[in-house]
Amino acid sequence: MPGQESGNSITDVLYGEVNPAARTPFTWGATRESYGIDLLTKPNNGYDAPQDDFLDGVFIDYRGFDAKNITPIYEFGFGLSYTTFEYSNLTVVRRGSSQIPMSTANTKTESAPIFGNISPNSADYRFPVDFSRIGQYIYPYISNTDAKIASADPNYGRKASEFLPPRATDSSPQTVPDLKGHSGGEPGLWDVVWTVTANIQNTGERNGEEVPQLYISLGGPNTPNLVLRGFERLSIDVGQTAVFTADITRRDLVNWDTVQQRWVETKFVKTVFVGPSSRKLPLSVELI
Fold this sequence. Notes:
The protein has helices at about 5-15, 60-65, 145-150; strands spanning about 85-95, 190-200, 210, 215, 225-230, 235, 240-250, 255, 260-265, 270-275, 285. It is mostly beta strands. Among the domains are: about 85-105 and about 180-285, Immunoglobulin-like, CATH 2.60.40; about 110-175, no CATH class.
């Protein structure tokens, strides 16, 4: 909520006392359907159970609009100003190798632990005699010795291999992935490998602030057209030019490989874009 000074703030903007640099942090679609997969509004998986498979993946908000070539009312990063700005002189300077220096772990985990004893007799798990239940409370008991009826699960009896990831039920020791390091992955992911600069000139008649944004195309067929990788808020007086600077780390250029369980850089050409919003990017250059 805007608070007690909202009236004064809005008046200052409308009458030009303040030249704002606000940007919308989401895309404004023309219809509910523009946003792709709809919200889950009612149970869809058996006995009042919700199930969402997140089929949209990483294609949410502007990434989804771009992938489906849907024109929004206002794009991600859009904003207004009482002055105008011109973007020019985009440069990229390499700071290091993009190859990720990964550690190798040759160790294995311990076997999955087993806690307590499990009885194959479902009658051992029935509600105790004369037990008083509280509505909506989840108890560690079942109401019927027929496990299928007690579960109320439409998927009861299916093999785990039909819907779980490979080896999800394998309790034997597993190889530790080669991602040792600090929280968030291998420390080398956060090394700067490129530095991007661009000139932003105030070409209007009012002092103002601009928010140049850095986007990167990872180039692959299954990746978003663009991903935001940096932005900066700059105060620029009339006729003056400011320099937008942003660093690109290895993490900015990689994709998660679900098979290898690690971050990898693909062979596709990476392209840098700079502009005032996700749909207005006058500057671009390939990373070679």
